[in-house]
Amino acid sequence: MVTRKEVAELAGVSEATVSRVFNGLGPMKPSTKERVLEAAKQLNYHPNAIAQSFARRRSGNLGVVLPYMPKVHLFSAYYFSEILSGIGEQVRELGYDMLLSLLKPDESLDYSALYRSQKVDACVILGARDTPEQRQSLMKLQAEGHPFCLVNQRFEGLSFREVDADHIEGSYQAVRHLQEEGYRKIAFLNGSLGYSNSVDRLEGFHKAMKEAGLDVMPELLLEGNYSRKSGYEAAERLWEQREHVEAVFAANDRMAIGLMQGLRERGWIAGRDFAVIGCDDSDAAKLSDPSLSSINVPFYEMGKEAARGVLAGVLQGEAANHTRVRLPTQVVVRQSSKRNPSK
Amino acid sequence: MVTRKEVAELAGVSEATVSRVFNGLGPMKPSTKERVLEAAKQLNYHPNAIAQSFARRRSGNLGVVLPYMPKVHLFSAYYFSEILSGIGEQVRELGYDMLLSLLKPDESLDYSALYRSQKVDACVILGARDTPEQRQSLMKLQAEGHPFCLVNQRFEGLSFREVDADHIEGSYQAVRHLQEEGYRKIAFLNGSLGYSNSVDRLEGFHKAMKEAGLDVMPELLLEGNYSRKSGYEAAERLWEQREHVEAVFAANDRMAIGLMQGLRERGWIAGRDFAVIGCDDSDAAKLSDPSLSSINVPFYEMGKEAARGVLAGVLQGEAANHTRVRLPTQVVVRQSSKRNPSK
DNA sequence: TTGTACGCGTTATCAT
DNA sequence: ATGATAACGCGTACAA
User: Is A104 on the interface with B (CB under 8 A)?
Assistant: First the structure.
């Protein structure tokens, strides 16, 4: 391996000067700079990133924490994929690298381990849930002064750096859309309330229903786990209430598609016999038949903003702060939420 | 930050002894070991991973190289997601971390940069294509003695460490399946031949057709780019040949679904008017309507095996070698390839 | 079984 | 504008 020392010798300068050249520090004679660069090129010298990290006491890595999800190949979810892409883009712009960390079930309690080993300067945490353990871990992280940013999850009563989407407004708009298409009897297939965005969507749903002067039957508030299967299974429960259902808002696309599949088996076709709108605007929405109306959530941008914010904090030596960024969502109308033909 | 030195002082031993305890090296008195661990615990000492990397001259990181794909949020593809999950699982078992590297277009020529900075000990390279530049880059990598492993891509005439799936056999089985369902006029929607697996699939297709004594009309050999859109557009070309088509084998699920959508608009329903089988057995295959028959490719296992192999090489100090692993594929029958009703 | 001492390749501080 | 040099935290050969 070519080291700074060899470059210094060849260029006839000190090691310190070589470092200055490569770090663009201090005033220096253009001629020496040139000599150094020439020598470096000739020897094919490249600074050792590990040694730099060691000396700077900064790894140059952004940790990306992915939750443990049993029986699910995690990255398969559109949700994570998009966020990761956004982080990746931002990270590269700042000269950082991204270190992926897939949590094991028992590690969920100890985010600190990531920082202890000094392999990351900051973290973006994806897919956190609102549980007592999680709250405690995050508070500990914060108390220890470790910079991190949550994506798409907030903790009521706690203030972290976080990037979210406006799920309340998104859901409100989704339900408004269904209402404008002429539907009154609207069901809601939500995900676990352990995710703050599920809570937010519920709020948006109620808001839209209330404003329209529509009642919400408890039987029409269903819960799945964001999987296609859970949507498929919800079809059965919904079918029992079919007298009272004209349209469904599902908290993600996969559940919406499962639901459509389940109801299709009973003869109900989305976009003909009832309306559906999903959430995420994932690829699956375009692939399904009928194509699925959905709420676009800017996951890519959310990932990018999370990385930008938390790394800006690190680079400027700020203490971890409590910024909350909330990005807008948007209704995307496709075939599954066509106008109610009976009106 | 708590260092080894402080632990040594508190435990009343030398720094070397602390290292030995933490690395489980050499014989040592149980009592000293205990004293050290006790002191470490009391001080909440954790070895600095960067310093370890520095001293060991190993980063403990496996680089994962993702290709540049314009206008595509890379991770969204099922393909990459699964492979990444497999790598992640293996990496954790070996105590490694994974460093993601998204290539920019102009970086495709210089994989060496990743190793130069010493941030990775080895790489898994995804989505490589067979171009002269790529060949040259990879040969350079190999010449420099950098360990790496290709996934799902081989280079005819060159021998690298690589993990692949048996796409020839998979395609052969796919076409055989269509034939067994009673279809004779079979079209093939392939992807770019810049990917070795496209080449392999073409070979499998021809093999099955030849064995069945069936002709292959050049008009029925279509090429897309693995996107849904390209499948949708292929529908137009296929429609012109509808007299000669009963079934289609598509080189991935997304194209297959786009194709089904395009033909549906012309009144041809998959599983009723014609048969389709895709490839990848991605989530989309289950989401589509009708559900899409497909070739299961063990991407997860491929990623895991790639990481296992290349890291085993690193850990055992072997020079990069030329192992080729090929995993089996499997036909998954769903609704889109039902028996030909006209037979 | 344990301690001493050096080296790893940089950054950064202090001289000059 | 440049050089000398002390850290940085750990691994490890060698000595005891």
Answer: yes
Interface of A with B in 198-227 (CB under 8 A): none
pTM of the model: 0.90
Tell me the nt nearest to A14, Cα to C1': D3
- Does B130 have pLDDT greater than 80? yes
Q: Would the pLDDT of B154 be above 90? A: yes
Predicted pLDDT of residue B177: 97
Fill in the amino acid letter for A236: E
Q: How far apart are CA A22 and CA A47, in angstroms?
A: 8
Does the CB of A31 sit below 7 A from strand D? yes
The 3 state secondary structure assigned to chain A is CCCHHHHHHHHCCCHHHHHHHHHCCCCCCHHHHHHHHHHHHHHCCCCCHHHHHHHHCCCCEEEEEECCCCCCCHHHCHHHHHHHHHHHHHHHHCCCEEEEEECCHHHCCCCHHHHHCCCCCEEEEECCCCCHHHHHHHHHHHHCCCCEEEECCCCCCCCCCEEEECHHHHHHHHHHHHHHCCCCCEEEEECCCCCHHHHHHHHHHHHHHHHCCCCCCHHHEEECCCCHHHHHHHHHHHHHCHHHCCEEEECCHHHHHHHHHHHHCCCCCECCCEEEECCECCHHHHHCCCCCEEEECCHHHHHHHHHHHHHHHHHCCCCCCCCEEEECCEEECCHHHCCCCCC
| Residue B330, strand partner residues | B296
Q: Within the 119-138 window of chain B, which residues sit less than 8 Å (CB to CB) from chain A? A: 119
Confidence band of A48 (pLDDT split at 50, 70, 90): very high
Strand D: which positions are within 7 A of a protein CB? 1-5, 7-13
**Cβ–Cβ below 8 Å for A101 and B97:** yes
The tokens describing B187, both together, are 């079209």
Domain annotation for chain B: domains and CATH numbers: 61-165+300-327 (3.40.50.2300), 167-297+331-337 (3.40.50.2300)
